[in-house]
Amino acid sequence: MSRFNLAIVGGGLVGASLALALQAGAKARGWKIVLIEPFAPGDTYQPSYDARSSALSFGARQIYERLGLWQHISRRAEPILKIHVSDKGRFGAAHLSSMQEGVPALGYVVENAWLGQCLWQALDRDVISWRVPAEVTHMQALPDGYRLTLNDESQLDCDLAVLADGGRSGLREQLGITVRNTPYDQSALIANVTPGDAHGGQAFERFTQDGPMAFLPLPDNRCALVWTRTGDDVQRLVALDDRSFLSELQGVFGYRLGTLKQVGARHSYPLALIEAEEQIRSHLVVLGNAAHSLHPIAGQGFNLSLRDAASLAEALLASEAPMGDLSTLQAYRERQRADQQMTIGFSDQVTRLFSSQQSLLTTGRNLGLLGLDLLPSAKSWFARQAMGLGTRTDV
Fold it and tell me: FAD-binding domain: from which residue to which, for each copy (predicted)?
């Protein structure tokens, strides 16, 4: 039976980022790492109008720069130069700009397929073993690690297992790790849209009586739409023909980017704040969406998971204890606790504040948006949260 120092269960964006963050140190230490992923990556990147995308914060760029990957990622990363925040039908609005914050961009929008391709191509197969396509069907705790059973009935042992298999992790449930599930009673509709005018690197956060909406700039003058609505209304919007859908979207978003010309495939999913009750055990770490799934409107979910992965890699590489040692994992957890609490709280409160139609709250949030434009210190605090720098003091 094969034995590894570390097994990463889930080779998506978070799992692959963790593998890359550990790669150089693992090579120097002679660690054996295996990455287990059910979907094999393609040999080449294939552009698609309907590609799903992620908003990377400026802090995420800094992490990938330290890993030597940003130059490659940036070839198809659309910079967010400005963010316009507004409340439909009300006077409040705020404007954030990269120039005012002294950074090249507030964030970047990257297609998931491109980011995944960049990550997988950067992995050294002599250091990171791949089991792809493969799936872990069972995890058994051992005194010194975990035994993983794969769907081909093969088994492997590891000193440390990292569970990064997504928000619907069956293995998390199998291990008896409970989650706090707080439904938002909303669903997200996502699609790519082509506007009539050039987006110019501007992102829009628009809050309406039916829920918040985000327009994020993509390459080729597309925009990634995240439109939050009630569940029944989302299904109605998904079922509309393209022309009717664009007309309804135009009525809510307005003409800030001219006439909306094209929309791609539409998808929807229910929204909830999900937090695992345990993120560490001896010889086990829960990471990514398996640890916490956030509302997408604030664009913080993947960025927080990436910071978790970078922090975990630093803790493992700095420790002289055996791999999987509980004290090392507890130190990682404590280090990330404040970041997680602040980011999850920021995302949740922004979502709830701008989804409420109570008159006092709508008046208060509009005054707050005006205050952001009038108070540089408040705007800078808000921008640092959006850029993933809220708990950082070194940048």
Answer: 6-338
Q: Are 148 and 155 in contact (CB under 8 A)?
A: yes
pTM above 0.85, yes or no: yes
Number of domains in the chain: 1
Using CA atoms, how far apart are residues 161 and 35, in angstroms rounded to an integer?
10
CATH number at residue 30: 3.50.50.60
What is the distance between the alpha carbons of residues 58 and 80, in angstroms, rounded to a whole number?
10
Q: How far apart are CA 188 and CA 269, in angstroms?
A: 6
Judged against a pLDDT cut of 80, whether residue 354 lies above it is answered with: no
Confirm whether 72 is domain-assigned. no
Tokens 């938002």 label which residue?
A: 184
The residue with greater pLDDT, 378 or 132, is 132
* DSSP label of 74: G
Distance CA 207, CA 214 (A): 9
Average pLDDT on 346-363 reads 58
Helices (H), 273-358: 301-318, 326-353
Q: Which domain holds residue 290?
A: 2-57+113-180+272-351
Q: Please give the residue that has the higher pLDDT: either 351 or 63.
A: 63
The CA distance from 298 to 305, in Å, is 14
In a domain, 321, yes or no: yes
Distance in angstroms (rounded) separating the CA atoms of residues 204 and 199: 10
Which ranges constitute the DSSP H helices of 227-300? 231-239, 242-253
Which pair of structure tokens corresponds to residue 176? 């008896």
pLDDT attached to residue 93: 62
Q: How many residues make up the chain in this entry?
A: 395
Give the whole-angstrom CA distance, residue 317 versus residue 324.
12
Segments of the chain assigned E as strands: 2-9, 33-36, 53-57, 77-80, 82-87, 93-97, 107-111, 128-131, 136-142, 145-150, 155-163, 179-195, 202-208, 211-218, 222-229, 260-263, 267-276, 280-281, 284-286, 292-293
**Tokens 């803790």, residue?**
315
